[in-house]
Amino acid sequence: MRTSETSEKDARRLERALDQATEVLLQSLAPNHHWSGSLSSSALSTATAVTALAIVQRNSGIFQSQTEAGLQWLSDHANEDGGWGDTVASLSNLSTTTLCWAAFGAVEGAGARFQKTVANAEQWLKQKAGGISPEVLAPAVIARYGKDRTFSVPILTMCALAGRLGSGREAWKHVIPLPFELAAFPHRFFAALRLPVVSYALPALIAIGQARHVHSPSRNPIVRGLRNASRERTLRKLTEIQPTNGGFLEATPLTSFVVMSLAGSGQPNHPVVQRGVQFLKESQREDGSWPIDTNLATWVTTLAVNAIGEDVSTVLPAEARRDVCDWLLQQQYREVHPYTQAAPGGWAWTDLPGGVPDADDTSGAVLALKRLGMKETAIKPAAFAGIEWLLGLQNRDGGIPTFCRGWGALPFDRSSADITAHALRAWLAWREELSGPLKGRVETAIQHGVAFLGNTQRPDGSWVPLWFGNQHGPDDENPTYGTARVVQALADPKCQDSAAAQQALARGVDWLMRAQNSDGSWGGFAQGSASIEETALAVEALSEVLVQGTQSEPVRVAVEKGADWLVAQVESGSWLQPSPIGFYFAKLWYFEKLYPVIFTVGALRSALRLVSRRA
Fold it and tell me: Are 197 and 150 in contact (CB under 8 A)?
C-alpha cells in the first residue's frame, strides 16, 4: 500500500521525468517554428531509388556515385538472416528483400562486387518464398497483398526491369497489367471505376501500367488499341499532378517506381523522369540511404502541440505559440488539390510540395489550433474550414477514410477507426464555438462517427488502426494503438449519449487493461514486447478516461504502473529509442525519432494531471 510520502516521491519523479521529456521536445523545435522530426532510413526506399537511377543512367553512367553509395548502404545494413526489413530495426520481409535483391541486379556488375550479400539474399528468398525463379517468386509477392495491386505490381515491375524475372516479353508475363487507360477519365469517376490500386497511387497506375504495355502489350486488339490511344493523355495527367519538386507524395518508393517505369520503357528524358531524378538525388542521405518519405513535419508538429495540451501556454511563450500557429496556418490548402481533387481546407503530413490533404493531419491541425489558444482572427476560419473538410470526407458508414470519400474497395481507402476517432476529437474541440447549420452537421457527424466505432469494435473489445502496426503482432496489427486512440475520443462525455457508446468505451478500456504487461508496459498487442510509443499511448488514453470522470481503481492502478514504467525508461535514457510502429502504404514500416518523445510527453503530462487532481 502506498503511503502519502511514497505518493509524493512518485509525483516528484513523474514531474522530473516530464520536465526532462518536455525539454527534449522543445529542443527539437526548429528555428522556423515547427517540428520536423527525422524518419528512419529505409532499405526499401534505397533499393527502389538505386534501381530508378541505374535504369536512367544505363546509357550515361552519370549517377554511378549515388547508386554505389546506395548499394553499399544496403550491403552494410542487411539483417543477419540475409534479408532486409524496411528499417534498420525491422524484421526481414518478402517485399523489401525482393526489392533489395532486384537492386543488385539492376546495377551492372553489382552482383560480382556484392557477391556474398546477393547470395545471402537469395538463400533467404529460397527459404521464405520457396525459390527465386519467376514462377515461384511472383506468386508469393502477389499473395502477400491479395487483390490490392498497389505494391505487388510495382515490386514485380522492378524485378522485370532489373532482369530478375528473365528477359524479353517472357519476363513481363509475371507482371499483372494495370488499366492505366482508366486514368484518362475525369477524377470524379475514379471511385466508381474501382481501380485496382488505392486512391493516392495514380502515378504508379499510369507509369507502371504503361511499362507493362510497352514491354508486353495485350493480345486483345481492342484493349491494345485503347491503351495505345490513351498513352499521351495519361502521361499529360501524370505531368500535371507531379509536384514542383518532382517527388510524388514526397515518397521515394512511389517516385522511384514512376521514374524506373518510364525510363525503362524508352522515355528516360521525359520531364516527369527528369524531375523525379532530381528529387531522388536531393533526398539521398550522406550515408547513401533514402528515407521512406521526406518528412512528417505537419504531423509531428500537431502531435507535439496536442501532447503538451492544456499546458501549452506555460510551456511555450506567447511568441513561440504565435509562430507555430502561423506556420500551421500556412500549411492549410486553400485551393483544390491537383492530385486528389481534394477540396480546400485540409492539411497534409508535410510542409513540402508533395503532400496531399488527409484526414488524420487535418484533425491534428484543427485540434492544435484550438490547443494553442491564440486569438488571431485567421484561426477560427481556418479551423472551421478544416471541420468542413472533414465533414465532406465522412463515408456513409459514418467512418472517416484517409484521403477520398467513397473509395471503399481497398484497405487503405476504407473508413478507419483511429482516423475517425481523431476527427471526433477535432469536432468536439470546437463544438461549443460552432453555430447554425455547421453545428448541426457536426452533431450529426459525431453521432454517425460514434456509431461507426461501435460497429467496428472487435469482439475482444479492441480496435485496429490503419496506418500503424506492430511487426511482432499477428498480421502485423497494432490493436494497442487503435484502441488507445478510440478510447481517448470516446472518453469525452459528449460521446457518451447512448448506452452503446458507453459499452464500447468500457470494453475498450477493459481490453487495454488486459493487454498491459506485468511490469506496467504495453506492446502493440496483448502482452506484446514493450515499447515506449505503445505504453505512452495506453497511459494517455486511460488517463483521459479518469480525467473525464470515470472513477475506477483498477484503471488508476494501470495508469500508475504504466507511468512508473515510462519514468524508469526516461531515467535510464532508453526512452529515446524509437520502434518501427508506423505503417506507410502497402505495409511499409518506418520509425520516427520524435514519436517516443512526443508520446512520452503526452502520457506523463496526462498522468501528472491525475496526480494534481487527487492532491
Answer: yes
Q: For residues 512 and 480, is the Cβ–Cβ distance under 8 A?
A: yes
Q: How many CB atoms lie within 10 A of CB 244?
A: 10
Distances (CA, A) of 302 to 36, 511, 577: 11, 28, 21
Q: Quick one: which of 466, 371, 385, 350 has its CA closest to 419? A: 466
Residue 333: pLDDT above 50? yes
Separation of alpha carbons 547 and 558, rounded Å: 14
Residue 576: exposed, middle, or buried by beta-carbon count in 10 A (0-12, 13-18, 19+)? middle
Amino acid at 28: S
Q: 524, 480 in Cβ contact below 8 A?
A: yes
547 in Cβ contact with 613 (< 8 Å): yes
Spell 332-363 as b/e; 16+ CB within 10 A means b: bbeeebebbebbebbbbbbbbebbbbbbbbbb
To which residue does cell 458507453 refer? 502
Q: What SS3 state is found at 583?
A: strand
User: What pLDDT score was predicted for residue 223?
Assistant: 87
Closest CA to 276 of 42, 45, 49, 38: 49
Query: Position of cell 527528369?
Result: 274
> CB count, 10 Å around CB of 124?
23
Amino acid occupying residue 552 = S
Side-chain-side CA neighbours of residue 169 (13 Å): 6
CA distance 286 to 305: 31
550: left (phi over 0), alpha (psi -120 to 50) or beta: beta
Determine the Cα–Cα distance for residues 247 and 294; give it in Å rounded to an integer: 9
- Give me the percent of the chain exceeding a pLDDT of 70: 93
Residue 339, pLDDT above cutoff 50: yes
Q: What angle do CA 470, 471, 473 make, to 5 degrees?
A: 65
The model's confidence at residue 30, banded by pLDDT at 50, 70 and 90, is: confident
Task: Note the pLDDT of residue 573.
Answer: 95
Phi and psi of 219, rounded to 5°? Answer: -80, -15
Query: For residue 92, what are the CA distances in angstroms to 82, 86, 141, 152, 588?
Result: 8, 8, 14, 17, 12
Kindly state the cell numbers that stand for 514: 488486459
Q: Helices in 187-317 by DSSP H: which ranges?
A: 190-193, 202-215, 221-241, 252-263, 271-283, 297-308, 312-315
> C-alpha 295: how far from its chain's center?
11
- What domains are defined for the chain? 1-31+462-615 (1.50.10.20), 41-291 (1.50.10.20), 295-456 (1.50.10.20)
Lowest mean pLDDT among 69-78, 257-266, 579-588: 579-588
